[in-house]
Design brief:
The chain is an alpha+beta fold and 205 residues long. Helix content is 17%, strand content 23%. The model is unreliable at 2-27 and 33-47 (pLDDT under 50). The chain is globular. The strands form 2 sheets. Strands 3-4-5-9-8-7-6 form a 7-stranded antiparallel sheet, with helices on one face.
Length: 205
């Protein structure tokens, strides 16, 4: 091997050694993409789910005139909605879903009820026809269970207060909740959402 070749190989080895010992050059930082704007959380109370606050355009506390503006006049004006309609009336507006009944007391919406024909769900995804055990499992300790006034067990009422509420009969007009009325077959036969009138067991009574 010639002296010149030895010099070239030695220089190459030194360069390789220096490259191995030198710190790695950091890759140029990539520009940080702008943060994505998260979709706003859905307002369940204003969506298709029934809550103690209302359903879609219906809000507990709105006037009868506001109900009519949102969903139309009484679909069955000849029906009697209560013993004293001026103080308490029940009716289904023309554009309300089948199986929905509204309670108006002293010109204010106080309760929204769902019957057998309804497939509307509550904010827990529960609907008429669901088994009572599913309701209890969905709410856990929040569920207050009381005997049904007219039917024997397993018929019962499952009450859940989302605002206000408590033990015993609630009279606070600002309280909001849902009552699942369980029939003798152990399934939900009706759902009532709104204020203290959800405790009524016989229409306006």
């Amino acid at each position: 091997m010639s002296h010149r070749l030895k010099q070239l190989l030695g220089a190459a080895g030194m360069i390789a050694l220096l490259a191995a010992c030198s710190p790695e050059t950091e890759a140029p930082a990539q520009p940080t993409p702008p943060p994505t704007t998260a979709d706003p959380a859905p307002d369940l109370a204003a969506g298709p789910n029934l809550t103690g606050e209302g359903w879609e355009a219906l809000r507990i506390g709105m006037t009868r005139a506001e109900i009519v503006e949102a969903l139309g006049e009484d679909a069955n004006p000849d029906a009697v909605g209560g013993p004293d309609p001026e103080s308490c009336d029940q009716f289904r507006p023309e554009r309300a879903p089948e199986g929905m009944l509204l309670m108006v007391q002293n010109d204010r919406l106080t309760r929204i009820s769902l019957g057998d024909e309804s497939d509307i769900t509550t904010d827990k995804g529960l609907r008429v026809g669901d088994p009572a055990e599913r309701v209890k499992a969905a709410y856990g300790d929040q569920a207050q269970v009381t005997p049904h006034k007219y039917q024997s067990a397993p018929a019962e009422y499952i009450t859940v207060w989302s605002r206000g509420g408590g033990e015993g009969y609630i009279e606070d007009e600002t309280a909001r909740g849902i009552v699942y009325e369980i029939g003798s077959d152990g399934t939900v036969m009706a759902i009532h959402a709104g204020g203290p009138s959800i405790q009524y067991v016989e229409g306006c009574l």
